[in-house]
Specification:
It is a multi-pass membrane protein. This protein has helices spanning 2-20, 22-41, 49-58, 60-74, 82-100, 103-127, 132-149, 161-168, 176-194, 196-206, 208-213, 218-244, 256-266, 278-297, 302-327, and strands at 156-157, 170-171, 174-175, 246-247. It contains 15 helices and four strands. Helix 2 (22-41) runs parallel beside helix 14 (278-297) and helix 5 crosses helix 12 (218-244). It has 329 residues and is mainly α. The protein starts with a helix and ends with a helix.
Length: 329
């Protein structure tokens, strides 16, 4: 009896380690190191409640995009157009709200625009057929151009307290936008871990041939996955519009696609598909958020910030490829 209890105690740390995952532990360590560095450099500002909330708000849009990107990458695809869909959805929201005089109608139109844009990506990829990178690279430019055409490249103001509440409102001391991110994370985790569709997406990315033989409708899944990615980008656009109270055609042109992909890869997504977690992606998002915030607080020039983000993506891919080579995949 005593030997059994001892064995259970010895297995407990390994079991806990397995549940957390080596990749996530490495990310937690990296995040702790960044927090320690920037906290030491700016102890008067970094750990203040206001700055911590600012970090949370700053990663809200990126977090939503990164979680959707994770699902796309796990399925074996890639969506480079999400930043442009963010801008397009804010413009559709603004135009619809202005024309109808109704904020709910504008929100519905913006979300629908993102859903349709994502479905267009899926249809091009499936029925072209066109490589996902090339297809979404093309639609990235097309969606951005469409957003500019809607008002000759100018922003469109939005008036309405209901939308503004999402941007500035709080619940239990936290902004609504952060609660939205938490809710989205919970939904994505349940979807990928607990549903048959979520497990099928991993199977699709891991081995499309086996997935097809198992009866998984590959084309329907691929179109639906890109439609989901577009919808998530529209939700991110809704959050952005609630902050700026305007439709911004250029709002997705600040490298949102790059940061979302970086966060997903940092979180353990394999570019070949079949591997990746939502928790890992969110840890990647937090690393990027802390890095961005810390560089701003320490007055790092913008050009060097861009250099650091690019280097982070390259480093994440190198580490991932080396881990894949060691595991013999």
């Amino acid at each position: 009896m005593t030997d059994t209890a001892t064995a259970r105690r010895e297995r407990a740390p390994a079991s806990l380690f397995g549940r957390i995952g080596a990749q996530n532990i490495s990310l937690l360590i990296a995040l702790a190191v960044l927090v320690a560095i920037f906290g030491a450099l700016r102890p008067d500002v970094f750990f203040t409640p206001r700055n911590l909330i600012n970090i949370g708000l700053a990663v809200t849009i990126l977090g939503i995009l990164a979680m959707a990107q994770t699902v796309v990458i796990v399925s074996g695809g890639l969506d480079i157009s999400v930043g442009s869909i963010v801008g397009l959805s804010t413009m559709v929201l603004a135009v619809a709200a202005q024309e109808t005089g109704s904020i709910p109608a504008g929100i519905l139109a913006g979300l629908l625009a993102g859903l349709v844009a994502g479905a267009v990506n899926g249809l091009i990829i499936v029925y072209g057929p066109v490589n996902a990178v090339i297809a979404t690279l093309g639609t990235m430019s097309a969606f951005r151009g469409l957003a500019y055409l809607m008002n000759n490249g100018n922003s469109i103001p939005i008036t309405g307290d209901s939308l503004r509440a999402l941007g500035i409102g709080t619940l239990f001391g936290l902004p609504f936008a952060i609660w939205l991110l938490i809710a989205a994370m919970a939904a994505f985790i349940v979807f990928t871990r607990e549903t048959v569709v979520g497990r099928n997406i991993y199977a699709l990315g891991g081995n499309p041939t086996v997935a097809r033989l198992a009866g998984i409708p590959i084309r329907r899944y691929q179109i639906s996955i890109y439609a989901m990615s577009g919808f998530a980008a529209a939700v991110a656009g809704l959050v952005l519009a609630s902050r700026t109270m305007s439709g911004q055609p250029a709002s997705g042109s600040q490298g949102l696609e790059l940061e979302a992909i970086t966060a997903a890869i940092l979180g353990g997504c394999a570019l070949q598909g079949g591997k990746g977690t939502i928790i890992g992606a969110m840890l990647g998002v937090l690393i990027i958020g802390v890095l961005n915030n810390g560089m701003i607080l320490t007055s790092v020039p913008t050009f060097y910030q861009l250099l650091a983000k690019g280097a982070l993506l390259i480093l994440a891919v190198i580490v991932q490829e080396r881990q894949r080579a060691r595991s013999g995949e």
